[in-house]
Design the sequence.
């Protein structure tokens, strides 16, 4: 009796001294800062769902998913440590984003950051991360300037707008050259006149400048190039100004609500271009599709992921099934890249074997994830560790999709570029509203 | 040429919409010399009322106008009896800061209830429709309806103010509240009525505007600023002044269109590269500034 009492008291003392959870698996905290409310809230929901799904797959064993992180049930090199994501809402506000980053680093003591979608917010958040020496992986911001700052704690998995915009002009040249499936070649002068409208924050204004550069490099006429506020309640004078330039090709860089407003206004003003192209973001959100319905048939958008990718990559199909069960939507550019962002975190942590920032930094710089692991159609993930693009993934690539009506009457995005992976005949010219 | 015509038409239509937004502000100022900073927030509430009523009941958005008018009228009267009445006892600065506080309160209340997401109407008889009447002029159905209603509302308010007993009482209160009280006019009720009409017209404007603009809790400020410019331009308290000043401001917001017209008429490359649309509201504020410096009582001002 006495010895049993002694044994119990020893147990009790151990229980008091040893902090709870020390014997359990270690928890790795990743702070994810996304626009969960505000104009880009729709994107925020996708980003969150994408990152959450990746964490679920990493934390559990899912034998039917052909990814190495689905086999481990946590971070193997850290004794099966589980990943917890702490989500914060930056509302599209760079100042708020920076404050949240400070809070995550100092109060929540996160081991790393993920985010932030808006390039303008990623810019301030990554500056905070750099200052505190906390590693940050960015999966969805495409302003080229972000990896031109020589930051040592910032890595970007997504390809950026220089590649995407170049892709677009390659596509236009190929289109008149008859390289696009289902379109015969025609004189280039039919597509010579371009007008662009981009939202006026970090991302859009950079895209606008890129369009200017590439238009002159590829010898197109940029008749009109304007910037507008994504928060503008009305775009009719902008649209009339675009229309007055009589463009053959219209290019946009828009977030969600402004993309919808822009297309609605184009329709109301009966603008008749031959090509309408959106630089991803708002142009491929489920809301864009559900709100505008059939009037978007023929609109092109740059993207990094289309449901059609499933046909090329089985692993994308497996993840898409899970994602659809979770959210009701197919994976899109935002969710697939947020997924890939967190997946990269998992690989980096696995390689680092600890949560010490210096170990993570070393691991991230040495990482080489093969393309077969990814849901996005890239050759893989390998970061540039020196030169002008420090921290940029060098193995990414983009797609151009076109909204078409499927046989079941549903809107689908068909791949039209790169030419060799086209999934359908392109609709050209743009059928008028 | 079609650029010029379409810009003029768009400017006039938009001007009429802006005029109805400013109408309530000028009535309230005219009757009781109070500048209502929360005016744009009333508009925002009108937009939410129209949007949510249409979405909840499945009604055609245009049929929600009476609901919006009722909500606005009640809100105006409630604001008067619950709040403004007490402000009137204080100095001018208290009234200014008071309505400013009301603005912050309403905005944050809306933020609490509706969240910060943009919301828009996507279905309705007028939504997304437009008429092409030739010569490059395209009339969006929503703006046409809003402009038409604006004319009707102005006409109605003008009749009310100038041809009815209540109107006489309102104007008497406006000119000399104390004198009016001695003559047996219930000035208290007249003030409340002014707030009711002011609130009702602007919420109706909101319920119309939501047919073509999206709404979020922060959008009031832009309209408050524009309404101020219109009221200042037209003369504080002048109903016809607000209408004509609305048209002028509508045209001012079309300066980018006129710029495009010049660009393509004279084929000047440097003009095409000026980002005029980014500054479209700047000209409105510039006009506001100029009118304040040159003629503070406005074009049609009758109150000193």
Sequence:
């Amino acid at each position: 009796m006495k010895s049993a009492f002694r044994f119990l008291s020893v147990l009790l003392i151990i229980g008091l001294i040893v902090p709870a959870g020390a014997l359990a698996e270690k928890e790795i905290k990743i702070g994810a800062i996304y626009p969960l409310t505000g104009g880009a809230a729709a994107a925020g929901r996708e980003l969150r769902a994408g990152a959450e799904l990746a964490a679920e797959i990493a934390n559990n064993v899912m034998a039917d998913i052909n990814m190495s992180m689905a086999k481990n049930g946590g971070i193997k090199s850290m004794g099966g440590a589980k990943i917890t994501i702490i989500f914060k809402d930056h509302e599209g506000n760079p100042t708020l984003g920076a404050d949240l980053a400070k809070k995550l680093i100092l109060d929540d003591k996160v081991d790393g950051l993920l985010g932030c979608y808006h390039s303008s917010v990623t810019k301030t958040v990554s500056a905070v991360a750099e200052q505190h020496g906390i590693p940050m992986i960015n999966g969805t911001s495409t302003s080229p300037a972000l990896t031109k700052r020589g930051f040592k704690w910032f890595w970007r998995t997504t390809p950026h707008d220089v590649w995407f915009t170049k892709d677009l002009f390659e596509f236009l040249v190929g289109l008149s050259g008859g390289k696009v499936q289902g379109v015969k070649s025609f004189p280039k002068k039919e597509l010579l006149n371009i007008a662009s409208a981009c939202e006026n924050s970090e991302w859009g204004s950079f895209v606008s400048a890129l369009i200017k550069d590439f238009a002159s490099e590829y010898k197109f006429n940029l008749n009109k190039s304007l910037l507008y506020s994504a928060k503008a309640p009305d775009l009719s004078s902008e649209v009339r100004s675009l229309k007055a330039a009589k463009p053959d090709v219209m290019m946009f860089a828009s977030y969600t609500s402004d993309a919808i407003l822009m297309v609605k206004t184009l329709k109301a003003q009966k603008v008749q271009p031959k090509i309408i192209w959106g630089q991803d973001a708002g142009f491929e959100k489920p809301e864009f599709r559900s709100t505008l319905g059939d009037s978007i048939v023929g609109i092109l958008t740059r993207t990094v992921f289309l449901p059609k990718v499933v046909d090329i990559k089985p692993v994308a199909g497996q993840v898409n099934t899970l994602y659809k069960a979770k959210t009701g939507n197919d994976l899109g550019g935002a969710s697939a890249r947020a997924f890939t962002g967190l997946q990269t975190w998992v690989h980096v942590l696995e390689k680092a074997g600890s949560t010490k920032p210096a170990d993570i930094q070393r691991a991230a710089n040495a990482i080489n994830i093969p393309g077969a692991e990814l849901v996005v159609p890239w050759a893989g993930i390998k970061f540039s560790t020196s030169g002008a693009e420090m921290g940029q993934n060098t193995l990414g690539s983009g797609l151009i999709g076109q909204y078409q009506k499927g046989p079941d009457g549903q809107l689908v995005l068909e791949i039209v570029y790169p030419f060799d992976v086209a999934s359908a005949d392109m609709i050209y010219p743009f059928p008028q509203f | 040429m079609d650029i010029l015509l379409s810009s003029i038409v768009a400017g006039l239509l938009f001007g009429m919409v802006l005029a109805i937004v400013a109408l309530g502000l000028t009535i309230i100022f005219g009757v009781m010399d109070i500048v209502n900073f929360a005016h744009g927030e009333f508009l925002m509430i009108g937009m939410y009322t129209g949007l949510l009523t249409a979405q909840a009941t499945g009604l055609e958005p245009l049929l929600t106008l009476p609901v919006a008018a009722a909500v606005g009228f009640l809100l105006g009267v409630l604001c008067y009896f619950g709040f403004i009445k007490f402000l009137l006892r204080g100095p001018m600065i208290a009234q200014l800061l008071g309505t400013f506080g009301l603005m912050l309160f309403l905005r944050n209340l809306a933020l609490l209830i509706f969240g910060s997401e943009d919301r828009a109407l996507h279905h309705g008889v007028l939504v997304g429709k437009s008429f092409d009447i030739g010569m490059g002029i395209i009339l969006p159905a929503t703006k046409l309806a809003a402009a038409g209603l604006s004319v009707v509302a102005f006409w109605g308010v003008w009749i009310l103010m100038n041809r009815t007993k209540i109107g006489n009482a309102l104007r008497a209160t406006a000119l000399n509240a104390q004198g009016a009280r001695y003559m047996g006019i219930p000035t208290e009720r007249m003030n409340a009525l002014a707030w009711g009409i002011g609130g009702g017209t602007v919420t109706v404007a909101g319920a119309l505007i939501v047919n073509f603009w999206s709404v979020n809790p922060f959008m009031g400020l832009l309209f408050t600023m524009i309404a101020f410019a219109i009221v200042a331009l037209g003369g504080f308290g002048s109903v016809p002044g607000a209408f004509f000043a609305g048209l002028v401001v509508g045209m001012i917001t079309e300066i980018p269109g006129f710029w495009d017209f010049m660009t393509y008429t004279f084929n000047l490359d440097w003009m095409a590269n000026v980002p005029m649309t980014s500054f479209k509201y700047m000209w409105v504020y510039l006009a506001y500034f100029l009118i304040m410096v040159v003629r503070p009582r406005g074009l049609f001002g009758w109150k000193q």
